[in-house]
Amino acid sequence: MEKLREILGKVHRGELAIDDALQLLRDLPYEDLGFAKIDHHRALRRGVPEVIFCQGKTPEQVARITRQMLEKGVNIMGTRADTRVFEEVKKIAPDAEYHRDARIFAIKRATVARNKGIIAVVSAGTSDIPVAEEAAVTAELLGNKVERLYDVGVAGIHRLFMNMEVLKRAQVIIVVAGMEGALASVVAGLVDKPVIAVPTSVGYGASFSGLSALLTMLNSCAGGLTVVNIDNGFGAGFAAHQINKLGGQEDGCALS
Could you list the residue ranges that cross the membrane (predicted)? Predict the structure, then answer.
């Protein structure tokens, strides 16, 4: 929205010719690279620029998309990015950051509003941390304060009860669990705030790569529990951000 306002303002003040403005506006809806069509208008519609899903793309493709997005001056986030992808991105953006556990790279170019509320990210086990970190880092990059509470699954439920203050402080809670996925229902039954459940593919054979946890969460008797796809930490972090921002923003902005 700011980019569009800037272009129109320059035309209004006579600082930019109409033909030049049309050339700039041509790429605003989307930019066709042949193998990808970059949605430059997504930030106007959703408040967040397009996020690059790196899995299945070559490092060179990710770098090309990143290069074109950098020209727009937006923040860039790439999910499911391995080290080969990150090394290719670093060639065009030396200041890029890599969150190894989350498999996310980030390039900060624009300020973002800071949401007031806290998002708590809870994992049942240590093995669930990569998915939990994907959720946590996503939420942080979008402008949220995040508190982490890891390895508090139902096999040792006292660990959760001894950290209830974390849940009480939060505006939104993300619960990440594999195996049978029971932790999400337990947490949802203890709090009066939105809980987003993320089933993970962690578990033995009959967990069916996360299907067991997914079905447990979908069949929860705790009202108001929302469930995202297996291992979809990004989806949970984004949804938590959308909820949390309804509580208002702090004064001032910061790089995400």
Answer: 172-191
Does residue 132 sit in the same domain as residue 100?
A: no
Place of tokens 């506006």: 25
Residue 222 resides in a domain: yes
69-93: average pLDDT: 92
Chain center to CA of 94? 22
Residue 196's pLDDT band (boundaries 50, 70, 90)?
Answer: very high
Per-residue model confidence (pLDDT) at position 18: 86
> Could you tell me the pTM of the whole model?
0.85
By the 8 A CB rule, do 183 and 200 touch? no
Domain that holds residue 172: 113-246
- Helix H, strand E, coil C: the string for the chain is CHHHHHHHHHHHCCCCCHHHHHHHHHCCCCEECCCCEECCCHHHHHCCCCCEECCCCCHHHHHHHHHHHHCCCCCEEEECCCHHHHHHHHHHCCCCEEECCCCEEEECCCEEEEECCEEEEEECCHHHHHHHHHHHHHHHHCCCEEEEECCCCHHHCHHHHCCHHHHHHCCEEEEEECCCCCHHHHHHCCCCCCEEEEECCCCCHHHHHHHHHHHHHHCCCCCCEEECCCCCHHHHHHHHHHHHHHHCEEEEEEEC
Surface-to-core class of residue 30, CB atoms within 10 Å of its CB (0-12 exposed, 13-18 middle, 19+ buried): middle
CATH code for the domain in which residue 208 is found:
3.40.50.1970
Q: For the chain, what is the domain count?
A: 2
